[in-house]
# Entry
Amino acid sequence: MYLVADASGITPDTLNNLFESSGAGLPTVTEVRSTPLDGGYGYLSRLFRLELEWSGKGAKDAPLTLVAKLPLQARLDAMTPDAVRMFRREAMFHQVVAPNAPLQTAKTWVAEFDNESGAATMVFEDLGKLDSFSDSDTISVERVENALIAIAALHARYWQSNELETMDWLAHPAKTGVDQVSSERFAMLWPRLVESGAYELSSTQRRLGELLSTKLDGVYEVLHTGPKSLIHADLHQENLFFDRNTPTFIDWALAERANPAKDVAKLTAACLEPGTIGKEQPRLIRRYREQVTTRIAALRQAQDGSPPKHTVIPTRGTRLRVEGSDRSSKVTREILNQVQNDKHQLRSWQRQNDEPELDPVHLVSLDDLERDVLLATCHYLASMTFLSDRNFASLAASPETRTDFTSSRVVAACDRDGIVAAVEAI
# Structure
């Protein structure tokens, strides 16, 4: 059962059936007025604000307004298989993850997936009283930092977790390549973007585009060999609401089992003022890493029932850092040899301290995380280029169009020598 994208299909009977089938525990809807939300059109969905009247037990405490996310009926017949999975993905996130997620998501009253139609219907709490943003807005550094801290809690919860293997509804780009633009495809599109004049590109940006035309496949390979967690994968302005400085995250249709650096990259590149990203992003990456490391250690402690003696932070290079404490003092060891020697010395250290050998907690070093965030920014540049292919001319003619704001910030975020160096090193 699902609501069609037509106001006439939103009736008290339809809502009551949905609330009953989803076990929402709400009283009876006696009247509903639906209003399309401004800007409430996604690629495959439409948003409505529902003004409700209730009767029966609990009617006085029932919400006066809710928001319904409905499929665009006209597109259902033409949906690609991946688009069908997007509906299911968001519904499953709200059924499986959201109830115990360590971050704020919109309270969900209905998250139903219809196997026959391929569509899903979601009914959420109305976040209209919180601070929201349009695609043309930037978000303050303080709020972006708070959003990074919040998403770090989710990443830590599922960091290299076996649970991810049971979530077959998540996108898994390392296996499917669904989010990838090949070097060959990019090499064809990038000159079109340059020639269109849609963006004023610096010599650094042009050099990056030339590099990605041959090295983009290597960018994905590096990202896919990094750690995996449950990530949002679409952290732009319109998917964030704030109660003062506390973020609420919406729109989980692109949720992935992927490198968390992708969330860090999209959030900072899309939401910060372009002129501040080079200055602010390194500090924000350090802050994120502190949070995710601390939270993983706390989760391990809670699972083991005793304080963790050490946290192992291997890199994909030649450095392995061991941080922890024995019974008497704090110790920090830097081992600067080859990876195999690192592992040998780690096992030796564990034996000397009567510690059992443990599987390493796969955490990237700060250097690796910074590099992955830069490479993930290249991924978003490639995706934006691919999705904008048919619109280069219109972007050049009208660069202030709504669809260009996030893309232009991603392009601006690539105007840094560090990104060029990261790609050159592949």
About this structure: The CA atoms of residues 35 and 49 lie 5 Å apart. The first strand starts at residue 28 and ends at 41. Residues 141-286+365-424 form a domain with the Aminoglycoside 3'-phosphotransferase; Chain: A, domain 2 fold (CATH 3.90.1200).
